[in-house]
Amino acid sequence: MASYVLFTLTIGGIYALLALSLNLVWGMAGMVNLGLAGFFAVGAYASAIATGAGAPVILGWLLAIACGVVAGLVITFATLRLRDDYLAIVTLGFGEVVRLVALNERWLTKGADGISGIPGPFKQALGQTGFPIFYCVLVSVIVGGVWLALRRLDLSPYGRTLKAIREDQELARFAGKPVLRFKFEAFAVAAAIAALAGALYGHFQSYISPDHFQSLITIYIFLAVTAGGVGRPLGAVVGAYAVVVFLEATRFFADVLPGLQPVQLAAVREMLVGAALLVVLLCKPTGLLAERIAPAAPYRKSR
After folding, report:
1. How does pLDDT run across 242-267, given as a tens digit for each residue?
2. Which residues lie closer than 8 Å to 240 by C-beta, 6 or more apart?
C-alpha cells in the first residue's frame, strides 16, 4: 500500500510540473499549447539517451531542459503569426510529430521497443525500498521550487505583463511592451518545465516508449489546470494531484463494473475523464482556486 501511495504522489508531482508548464503558457500568457505531450517526450528521450551513453543523471536532466528550451523557441518562432485555434492545431501537430519520430527512428529511440534500463539517481544505493521514498521527496521538492518561482513571477511586473498580453496583446504592444519577446520567453520556460517533467518520469519508470506520450496526457493536464484554476500556479498543482487521484480511483472500476473487457474498462475511464471536465466547466468554470486579480490602485489627480 505504501509503495502505491508513493507511486501516486510521484506521478502527481510530475503531472503538477506539466500543469505548471501549461498554466504559464496558457493561463498567464494566453497561448494554447496542445503539444504538451511532445515537450514531455523530448525531455524524457533526451535524458534517457544521454544517460544511456554514460552521462550522469543530473547532466541528462540539464540536457532535457536545454532541449525543451530549443523546442519551445522553434515552435514559438514557427507560430509567431498564429493565434487561438491555429496555434492549438500547430502545437498539437508538434506533439504528434515528436511521438512519430520516436516511433520510427529506431537508431535513436529504439522505436516501439522503447528505451529500458534508464538509471535512477542513487537507485542501487537506496534499494527497492528507499528509492521510491527518495524520488517522491525529490519530485515534491522540485515541484515546490518551480511553484514558488512561478508564484513570484505571477505577482511580479513581468507576470502582470504576461496577463496583459493574454487579455489584449495589441493593447499591450501599444503600451510599449515587447510582446514577441515575452511570448518567446514564456513558451521557452514552459517547454523547459515540461521537458524536466519528462526526464523525471523516464528516470522514475526506468522505461519509456512512444505509447507513454499520447496526446491524451495533454487532455489530462488541461483538465488539471481547468479544475485547479486557470492562471493560478497553486491551482495547477492542486488540480494535477486531484486528476491523478481521480485517474487512479477509476482503476478499481473493474470490481464495480464486472463483465467488461480491459479495453472496455479503458474506454470507460476516458469517458469519465471527459465527463469530469464537463462537470468542472459547468459547475466551477473558474476552478477550485480561482485566479485572484488585484484591483487597480485608485487614480489620484495630481495638483
Report:
1. 999 888 887 776 566 667 677 777 77
2. 12, 15, 16, 18, 19, 221, 224, 228
CB 66 within 8 A of CB 78: no
> What pLDDT shows up at residue 281?
79
Q: Are 196 and 253 in contact (CB under 8 A)?
A: no
Task: Report the alpha-carbon angle 205-16-65, nearest 5.
Answer: 70
* C-alpha to C-alpha distance for 146 and 27, rounded to whole angstroms: 16
Angle at 108 between CA 107 and CA 111, to 5 degrees: 75
Number of H helices and number of E strands within the chain?
13, 2
Contacts of 95 (CB under 8 A, 6+ apart): 34, 35, 36, 37, 38, 39, 41, 213, 215, 218
What stretch of H or E contains 26? none
What's CA 82's distance to the chain center, in Å? 22
All three cell numbers of 283, joined, read 459547475
User: Quick one: 173 exposed, middle or buried, by C-beta within 10 A (0-12, 13-18, 19+)?
Assistant: middle
Most confident of 5-19, 235-249, 273-287: 5-19
pLDDT of 169 higher than 90 = no
Of 213, 186, 216, 185, the closest CA to residue 199 belongs to: 213
Alpha-carbon distance 43 to 62, whole Å? 9
C-alpha span between 67 and 45 (Å, rounded) = 10
**Cell numbers placing 87:** 496555434
Whether 32 and 87 have beta carbons less than 8 Å apart is answered as yes
Mean pLDDT of 83-106: 87
Buried b (16+ CB within 10 A) or exposed e, 23-41: bbbbbbbbbbbbbbbbbbb
108-126 confidence digits (pLDDT tens): 999 999 999 999 988 888 8
β-strand partners of 115? 208
Between the CA of residue 248 and those of 22, 132, 258, what are the distances in Å?
22, 18, 18
